[in-house]
Amino acid sequence: MPVLKSTVDIRSEEYRNNRAAQLEVLRQLNEQLEIVRGGGGPKYAERHHMRGRLLVRERLELLLDPDSPFLELSSLAAWGTEFTVGASILTGIGVVSGVECVIIGHDPTVRGGSMNPITLKKNLRALEIARSNRLPVINLVESGGADLPTQSDLFVNAGKIFHDLTELSALAIPTIALVFGNSTAGGAYVPGMCDYAVLVDGHAKVFLGGPPLVKMATGEDAVDEALGGASMHSKVSGLSDFFAIDEYDCIRIGRQIVADLHWRKLGIGPTEPADPPLYDPDELLGVASSDFRVPVDPREVLARVTDGSRFSEYKALYGTSLVTGWTSIHGFPVGILANARGVLFSEEAKKATEFILLANQSDTPLIFLQNTTGYMVGTSYEQGGIIKDGAKMINAVTNSSVPHITINIGASFGAGNYGMSGRAYDPKFMFAWANAKLAVMGAQQLAGVLSIVARQAAESQHREFDAAADDARRTAIEEQIERESHSFFVSSKLYDDGVIDPRDTRTILGIALSAVHSQVVKGRRGFGVFRM
Amino acid sequence: MQRIRRVLIANRGEIAARIIRSAQEMDILTVAVFSEADRNAPYVKLADLAIPLPGNSPKETYLNQGLIIDAAKISGCDAIHPGYGFLSENAEFASACGQAGIIFIGPTPRAIALMGSKIEAKRIMAEAGVPVLAGITVSDSDTLSENLTELADTEVGYPVLVKAAFGGGGRGMRVVHNPGDLLEAIEGARREAASAFGNGTVFLEHYVESPRHIEVQIFGDSHGQVVHLFERECSIQRRYQKIIEESPSPAVSEELRSELGASAVAAAKAIGYVGAGTVEFVMDNIGKYYFLEVNTRLQVEHPVTEMVTGLDLVRLQILVAEGMPLPDEVRSARINGHAIEVRIYAEDVLGGFLPSTGVIHHFHVPDLPGIRLDSGVKSGGEVSVHYDSMVAKVISHGKNRDEARRRLARALSETRMYGVANNVDLLLAILRESEFKAGAIDTGYLVRHTPADLVGTLRSSDTVDAHCIAAAIAVQARNRSESKVLGTISSGWRNVPNGHQTVTFKHDGTELVVRYRLSGDRVEFSIGDGELCRATIYSCAPDEVDFELGGIRRSATISRFAGRIYVADNTDVTTFTEVPRFQEHPALEAHGSLVAPMPGTVVRIAVDKGSAVSAGDTVVVLEAMKMEHSIKAPVSGIVQEIRVDLGQSVDIGLVLAIVEGPT
Fold it and tell me: Which residue of A4, A80, B114, B237 has the lowest C-beta tally within 10 Å?
């Protein structure tokens, strides 16, 4: 396979500027992740420890195979909202007893691990990843239940958690609940709906109604242990399959349960040599553009991501604003679609369509590297059928059944977001580099469009156009769109699975590709490959 | 004169291998015998033929005269070499060989018999003018009377040494300082002697305190020639067993050497000695020496004599057994330089030199200048409970004592023996200790210098720390390489780091928690409460870590056998065990509780409260659904409580009884 040759000048001013800009936004990202890691803060962490309990991240680290990687998802959920960033829940993909699992852990230091509408969204997204990739689910349960003040945005949809857990079970995807603490009322159904439940002695509390509620309802004087302790559920109700004497024991049992699944992935393992790229991934910081209006040659990115910097380009001379080709990442063969110069023309759309059909013919997963400002507009392009060609691409993306993994490496605007397998097209995973922007269009452009529309409206109604007010509105809108297209904002709304450091791209793709191969990887067949 | 064409080696281990080597060099076909436990021993494969001896105990196998002579006959052997120990000093066996027309490679049965009795030997030696210590014999059948303690005082003088009259090797030996302890010591010595040598006769003699053990190698031929091949000093002993021997002795002058040699030759001539033998003396700190005994065989420590004289003593034994006269080079032998031998024992030095057994997963002695290895084991071999725990000898030769000592110390520092506790560290520490360096040694050396103190000097905490982090890096490399998924992703990778990876090792009874994080070729780590350190990894694999710590590049080899991790660099080894992250908790209830597994009726209570039970013993029998269920003790211990009565109906989960194990 051909090997990419980088022409990046690491001493150029552009490189150094890019790098400085990336480091600044990564500093901001790490600042946020520091908060995420801290959960409810040192005071609550200490109190939790004083109660003889482990923090959710300590539970996670004990659960994972030693030295194995862990890909945390949706870390910035609830960023910029009234809720704590991270949304009081930890989700991700990790290796337990040699099996890649989705791990979902409540953070009891954040308002008792209670669930708000964003917690729910993040939890459901993790279950969705488990379902579409056929990954066993391990719940690390300790939650006070619903965050009651937010119940109106939560209660109805929260039923989906139990629905999804049992649906996973119906799909023969194992579900495990390790119960470390409160799991009451609605929360009681998590161990209830899972295939396996392990309860920690003296800590786990699993009941529909606690002593006060029981007293109110029936007048009975009930105590916690008898209502929902580990011993009771292990010996009497049978809700608990394993009695754990402490948290360590619970995690040990959880690991044993996974080992006893004798799990077999349905996809093939890596088949290609997984040698590292020839170029240092650290240089991605200088390759990534600090301004989305300056295009990035995706080959420079690929040279720092793919196995041995290999890349076999398809239709290199046609539709050159989109780069397509074959390579492998951590040994998994993949097809790549990457924007080279922002705009998608008819040629690019047709090239993408053919390439997606080819990948489906050979059951090869696709990686979309988004850096697009959308499909070309203008009279000649409309007359040339850009809508029909864009539709072909979106059709192919929609109906492609090989796994898609999408990374926004700069910009994701307009229908380009759709054609390049954006969130609405259900890529198996979607990530964004920290500097990347996502919106219907760029902030300046959007503000300009609104201004033109307003001026036209004023003209047609023969009103006087207030230029000063328009300027003020334009600035306000520009600021709003700028804020809303920021990667943290996008990620906080769960429009992707996380904001990532560009240097981690290869690793994250490797983990994601391995995860998608837990499921059958099979392309859509039918008409054969249309030559567009 | 009778040429030997085929020899049976009636022995095992390193000495069997040693004899095979010389015999094969002489174009003599070799036949080994082996017990069941020795079926995979290296010497069996080295031999040209091998004959199995059913069973394992020495009595069934290597001491079984009839079987061994039969083996020699069926394999067409014309000679038997007995090695040392086993049948080597058994006059009856030597005669039996002669009667079967097989050459016994050793002295005549008469010489063996005479020297086998220490009392008789001493009488003969005294007559021949060899200095002896007075002694008293207490035969097997004598009843012990109180006046023996007085007699011992007047005839011998306290402290008194009690030892087996037949046999050697320190078995049954006791030193008695207090007359009141004498009878008990004699009884103990009798029992040991009876079981080890089949004869409980013991011998009392004056005990020379802090003496040197000096012995002279003698060689006689059937033509009346007797020579000595100088002395060996074997003063470094533990529990009366030699562990370091050398030749010449640093305490023997030229003058004393001729005197000792003349005494030894006189002793040998007194009994018409033929073949290889050793006259042992005890020597005090002013050079006065007394006859101890004659060993009518090849000694374990014969290699030091070979190294300084350049002779092959086994070859000479065979030549003499064929009736050849001693060659010229024996008569003109001179001391060339100095040789030291150490004996590697499979034993727990710090646990009181208790023999240890099991699989030697890895055994390596470096092939360095001046180093000779006489070994009975190889990697993967086993040390069984049936025989002596000595597994190999390492011998060094140098221009002088210091060179020999340094060469041997270096070789031992590179010696690796994994899987079975051994005394290599102790040997190395002795070689480097200043009294030993100065030659100021006596048989009390290991009383003055405790093994713990000696071994404690070997390793610095820096080395342990470096080996500890090397072990952690190797363990993570193995975890990564054994991973069935995501094996090519960086070790411990996190997009949101949660702190360090941890691994816990146990070293010398201490738990060391290692926290670490790898990033590229850098590792950040801390050990226990120690500060955060950084190291650079040049390369790492499950079995080898090349890294730089504190500005010093180190390379460590990591081996793992039976749950232990051995981290070795060129000169040091540190042993760790990995502490598992989780403990299994077998019992749900209070420790030792026996719980009814289902509802039923108590139909039998098999034990009483307060009685002792072994794990698995039935305590209570329940009948449920027409089936009998035995409830068994989970641990060995005492029945603390029986909580049910016969005929009582019990519910599931009820505690029936409590058995408490030793805490």
Answer: A80
Burial class of residue B463 in the structure, from the number of CB atoms within 10 Å of its CB (0-12 exposed, 13-18 middle, 19+ buried): middle
Residues B286 and B428 in one domain: yes
**Tally of domains in chain B:** 5
Residue B111 is assigned to a structural domain of this protein: no
Q: Could you tell me if B236 and B96 lie in one domain?
A: no
Contacts of B480 in chain A (CB under 8 A): 67
CB contact set of B633 (below 8 Å; sequence gap of 6+): B594, B613, B614, B615, B616, B617, B618, B619, B639, B659
Contacts of A237 (CB under 8 A, 6+ apart): none
A449: pLDDT strictly greater than 90: no
Q: Domain check: are B96 and B13 in the same one?
A: yes
> B277 and B189 share a domain?
no
Q: How many CB pairs under 8 A join A and B?
A: 95
Closest CA to B341 of B451, B225, B474, B242: B242
Instruction: Identify the active-site residue in B212, B238, B297, B560.
Output: B297
At B421 the three-state DSSP class reads coil
Distance CA B16, CA B27 (A): 16
Residue B129 lies in a domain: no
CATH number for the domain that contains residue B305: 3.30.470.20
Q: Which residues of A touch B505 (CB under 8 A)?
A: none
Cα(B158)–Cα(B181) distance, rounded to whole angstroms? 11
Query: Rounded distance, CA A513 to CA A431, Å?
Result: 13
Q: How many CA atoms lie within 13 A of A62 on its CB side?
A: 22
Tell me the whole-structure pTM to 2 decimals.
0.83
pLDDT at B439 over 60: yes
Preferred mutation among A64, A67, A93 to probe B, highest tally of B CBs within 10 A: A67
Q: Do A265 and B485 touch (CB under 8 A)?
A: yes
Q: What is the CATH number of the domain that holds B471?
A: 3.30.700.30
Residues B83 and B144 in one domain: no
Same domain for B423 and B501?
Answer: no
Q: Residue B389 pLDDT more than 70?
A: yes
The alpha carbon dihedral of A135, A141, A145, A146 has a sign of negative
Hey, are the CB atoms on A510 and B488 less than 8 Å from each other?
yes
Position with higher pLDDT, A526 vs A364? A364
What letter would DSSP give residue A235? I
Q: Choose one of B579, B606, B639: the last residue of a domain.
A: B579
Contact A507 B490 (CB under 8 A): yes
Which residue of B473, B480, B485, B540 is the best one to mutate when testing the A interface, meaning the one whose CB has the most A CBs within 10 A?
Answer: B485
ipTM score for this prediction: 0.95
Integer Cα distance of B204 and B138 in angstroms: 8
Q: What pLDDT was estimated at residue B284?
A: 86
- Nearest-by-Cβ selection for B486 from A58, A95, A249: A95
CA nearest to B490 within chain A: A69
Residue B297 is among the residues annotated as catalytic for this protein: yes
Q: Which amino acid appears at position A50 of this protein?
A: M
DSSP string, A250-294: HHHHHHHHHHTT----SS----S--PPPSS-GGGHHHHS-SSTTS
Q: Which of A54-58, A87-91, A151-155 has the lowest mean pLDDT?
A: A151-155
Residues constituting chain A: 532
Identify whether residues B256 and B152 lie together within a single domain: no
Mean pLDDT computed over every residue of chain B: 91
Cβ within 8 Å, pair A331-B488:
yes
Same domain, B153 and B236: no
Task: Tell me which residue range forms the domain holding B646.
Answer: 593-660
Residues in A touching B582 (Cβ below 8 Å): 248-249, 251-252, 255
CB-side exposure of B362: number of CA atoms within 13 Å? Answer: 18
Helices vs strands, H then E, count in chain A? 20, 16
Contact (Cβ atoms closer than 8 angstroms) between residue A397 and residue A335:
no
Taking an 8 Å cut-off on Cβ atoms, the answer to whether A67 and B479 are in contact is yes
